[in-house]
Design goal:
Elements: H1 2-56, H2 76-83, E1 124-125, E2 140-143, E3 152-155, E4 159-160, E5 173-177, E6 183-185, E7 196-202, E8 211-216, E9 219-225, E10 230-232, E11 243-249, E12 258-263, E13 266-268, E14 274-278, E15 281-285
Parallel strand pairs: 1-4
Antiparallel strand pairs: 2-3, 3-5, 5-6, 7-8, 8-9, 9-10, 11-12, 13-14, 14-15
Length: 286
């Protein structure tokens, strides 16, 4: 019995080999299929990610580069129709691919920021931390604050990251129009370092001099114009909030300009992210 059993063992082992080989082959096939599917899914994810990135990446503009969005010519026939009073036939104005009328100068914009004396202004200091108020600013407002007949310009700075101390934020600036294409920074304008949003000029106290309101994140600042010198009105309320646009108007017809300030959302700052509440619903911003 023992001899027979010993003789049968190799034959039994030989019968099992094909079965084991089949098991190993199936496992290999399953592994190869799984790896192939994972590789295909990864490749598809990369392709879709690149497509999404290209669709959402902002276009960059280089000085002197033609841009179909900002460089258009008017249709010569449409201009002639408007000149002749045929406004209803001026549908050609929608076709902006034709040349200007003969002799008309081509529209052209040249960046003269530095030559005009405005190059000192900086809108943002430091690096962003991906919080909403850092990406919203900022505004600009024209107004003849010194009553010399030339429109001066106030430029609102977005400031910087929410976690920066106020002393490190980029300041908003007032520039006086010198009347010759040049501007000069007004040195006695109060140092204003906020997460700025907007500004609006108006003579709210009816003294003949334009006053200025500036809005920002947790900031509403009123500057009173004292004969060409802007002074902050410390009594003016500046409540916490995400304040954006501002508009002056005498809504109650009492002869005094009133002020309307837009609030955006109830923003809750956080490290690298924040939450905001609007219409009673809270959203988490990442």
């Amino acid at each position: 019995m023992s001899a027979t059993s010993a003789a049968q063992r190799p034959r039994a082992s030989q019968r099992d080999r094909p079965h084991r080989t089949r098991i190993v082959s199936r496992r290999h096939r399953r592994l190869f299929w799984s790896l192939g599917l994972l590789a295909a899914a990864g490749f598809l994810g990369i392709v879709l990610g690149l497509m999404f990135y290209r669709a959402h990446v902002p276009e960059t503009y280089r000085p002197g580069e033609d841009s179909a969005d900002i460089t258009h010519d008017l249709d010569r026939n449409a201009v002639a129709a408007v000149s002749a009073g045929g406004v209803e036939n001026a549908g050609g104005l929608r076709n902006l691919s034709h040349a200007l009328p003969a002799g008309a100068p081509a529209p052209r914009f040249t960046d003269v920021t530095r030559q005009a004396g405005l190059g000192e202004f900086r809108s943002f200091a430091g690096n962003r931390t991906s919080q909403l108020p850092e990406d919203m600013g900022s505004g600009v407002a024209w107004g003849d604050f010194d009553n010399d007949g030339n429109e001066d310009v106030f430029v609102v700075s977005a400031g910087g990251a929410l976690d920066l101390p106020a002393s490190q934020l980029a300041p908003s600036m007032l520039f006086r129009n010198l009347g010759n294409g040049k501007f000069q920074k007004v040195e006695n304008f109060p140092d204003t370092r906020i997460i700025g949003m907007a500004a609006a000029w108006a003579d709210y106290n009816n003294d003949g001099w334009l006053d200025l309101v500036v809005t920002g994140y947790d900031s509403i600042i009123l500057f009173r114009n004292e004969h060409g010198v802007l002074v902050r009105d410390e009594k003016f309320p500046s409540p916490k909030g995400f304040w954006t646009g501002a508009a002056w108007g005498d809504y109650d017809r009492d002869g005094d300009l009133d002020l309307y300030v837009c609030g955006y959302v109830k923003y809750k700052p956080g490290a690298g992210r924040g939450g905001s509440e609007q219409f009673g619903l809270e959203f988490l911003l990442r």
